[in-house]
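Lab notebook, bench 4. Still working through the backlog of constructs that have no structural model yet. Next entry is a single chain of 180 residues. Request: give me the structure tokens for it.
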Amino acid sequence: MIYDPITNQPLIEAERFILRTLRKSDAGLLEMHTGDERVARGTRSIPHPLPPGSTDAFITRAMGKERALDVWVMDGSVSGHAEVVGLVSLTPMDRDQSEIKFWVAPAFWNTGMASEAVRAMVAANPHDSKTMFAEVFQDNPASARVVTNSGFDYLGDAEAYSVARDATVPTWTYVNRLED
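Model written out:
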């Protein structure tokens, strides 16, 4: 019998969903959502079109002991929604810092789900970070509102490569100092 590896990430409760670790059974919904060009274009790393096997490879990496980031699924099944509404990740950085990233399935855009997820992650602070950073593409003001409404302050402009766009895209960077 094959078992999924155990990851040491806490379950985080929000009002309309829970943030939980990835499961192999999430692959179908993840692939459907990340295969949507609108989702992929809002991220640095999701390609479009989505290559075969990339979702399974992502899940395997995210569940591994040597993973570079912690990933939580926004599981809406507790309130009658889909098991995968979106994802939130935290990448640990040096000096007790983390970078938060998120995406939400288009069916849940403009519902406050992203803001709720980011606020829940900041409140839980599972990495015990003193500082969290966030970055959004400048052509995505909705994500900028999510992070500013979650306590992040504008830090500056930069640019990042987007695989789906095959281009370098201007970004806004934000900071949330959790401990002074």
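Notes after review: Residues 113-124 form the longest helix (12 residues). The two ends are 49 Å apart (CA to CA). Flag for follow-up if needed.
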